[in-house]
Amino acid sequence: MELDELDRAVVHALQIHPRAPWTLVGEVLGVNPVTAARRWHRLTEAGLAWVTAYPRLSSRSVVTAVVEVDTEPGVAEDVARTLAADPAFTNIKLTAGGRDVVASLITRSLDELAGLTTTLFQRTPGVRATRTNVSTGLPTEGSRWRLRSLDAAQSARIEAALPPTCRPSLTAEAGWDDLDERLLELLSTDGRMSLRDLAASTDTSLTTVRRRVQSLLASRLSLRCDLARPLSGWPLSAVYFASVPGLHVEETSRALSRVHEVRSCAITAGPHNLVIDVWLRTLHDVHAFEAHLSRQLPRLTIDDRSVVLRTVKHMGRLLDRDGRCIGVVPIRHPQVPAQGEVGCATAPR
Asked: What is the pTM of this model?
């Protein structure tokens, strides 16, 4: 399925504002809101685009990590499918190079991370070894990646309609209850689910759901609009494991976040202090991009790299060999649910 300019413009608008009203999208794109909504429905029904909610990865209440997995010959895909069934694993890639699988996961503590990776090694058939890279910072991640379909004025109009964000207090980050957990589960399945449908699915009043969703999206949840990678114009993916002197980690990671090919960059504690996920156009670009980084960032050393053969799971979405969504493993918050509704303190955006 090919995307035309209107399809791409709709996706770009939702990348900026994933829950933007169709009236706003239609007005900015110069089309009838019904037409914009119909285009989006066609894309989602075909598994080509989707909106996902997930716990804010910069939160102090979550621990994220990148796990490299070595498998026995011929079973990497089976291992990837087994891991994909676990909600803690958000992204799973089959790779060529120094590891067979690269997986990203979210836990609530280092102790839970240790337990999960130990279980992974002991109980998953075909796993030979694992290496865990604990993330200490995430300067950029996939929700910030954009198509280039809207002009600056259109993008600004969509951005102006974004609701304010705020920084949650420690109490707020710990204040997850059963309703929060259920709303995260529903929004991770369909990030554009209407408030009315959310209220019906949680057996909660519309007023309560509206207030709670606004609080979650303002402080504790992130939203992202994703497109099947083969349709993005960047059909190839690679993961680079890199190092830079500690004094320059923050500066280098900020520079990487401005590189268009970079989808995400994690600062990690391990033999490599940066793990960089990129989208590329051709296999030739794997080394051409590395050479470009070396010229632009001479302090950066690429220690290893792996080409992604296939993405099995992407932020909770199960993908087929063409990158289309064929199922969802709802993302769960790693916090132990707590009772009570908590607000947050406003911070500059």
From this structure: 0.88
